[in-house]
Amino acid sequence: FKAANKGDADAQNELGVAYSTGLFGIVDFDEAFKWQKKAADQGHPVAQYNLADMYEKGEGCSKDYKASFEWLEKSANQEFIPAYSEIGVYYKYGYGVPKNIDEAVKWYRKGAEAGDAKGQFYLGYSYAKGQSVEKDYKMAIEWYTKSASQGFTDAQFNLGSLYYFGEGVETNYKKSLYYYREGAKKTMKNL
Q: Which of 49, 95, 111, 148 is the right S-S partner for 65, CB 3.0 to 4.6 Å?
């Protein structure tokens, strides 16, 4: 508390996370928002990302996709990698910005190439569906595999489907079952 009260952005961010996750025995989104905002205003990229999430969900504030997007951009401008893929999602669905699939894929690629599992998944999905890129199952499998290797369940399930139905690869029930099981294991742990 002392460091946060003295203006330490790292401590403010950690305090915000503690309040939002119930580390003190109770979830208090108002306090979480207050501390995340203080850290974000000082340019803390993780706090900016966390604040964007709070605006998206309306936790400790009114739901505001435009404000959420603005904080994501600030975080991304400081090269906080998870913000890249999230910006892509905002463009894909038109959250706080006009829908723009080309812009979405550009941000997915930026995240994917930086090693972000979510970006790798969405870039793989874009190749599988031919969204803003030419449909290419080999590229979809490449990006899904990178994402799946980091435990991203959606990529694991999608790889399972591609191997099951033989899309872009020979049908391989053994690999299909492997990826379905990997995705299911993580999903069951989160229940």
A: 95
Question: What six digits make up the tokens of 6?
Answer: 């003295």
Q: How far is CA 139 from CA 29, 72, 89, 155, in A?
A: 41, 27, 20, 13
DSSP 126-149: HHHHTSSS---HHHHHHHHHHHHT
What confidence tier does 187 reach under pLDDT thresholds 50, 70, 90? confident
Backbone dihedral region for residue 22 (phi beyond 0: left; psi -120 to 50: alpha; all else: beta): left
Q: Where are the alpha helices (DSSP H) in 62-100?
A: 65-77, 81-93
Encoded tokens for 156:
């694991």
Tell me the C-alpha distance between 36 and 160, whole Å.
Answer: 39
**Nearest-angstrom CA–CA distance, 128 and 36:** 37
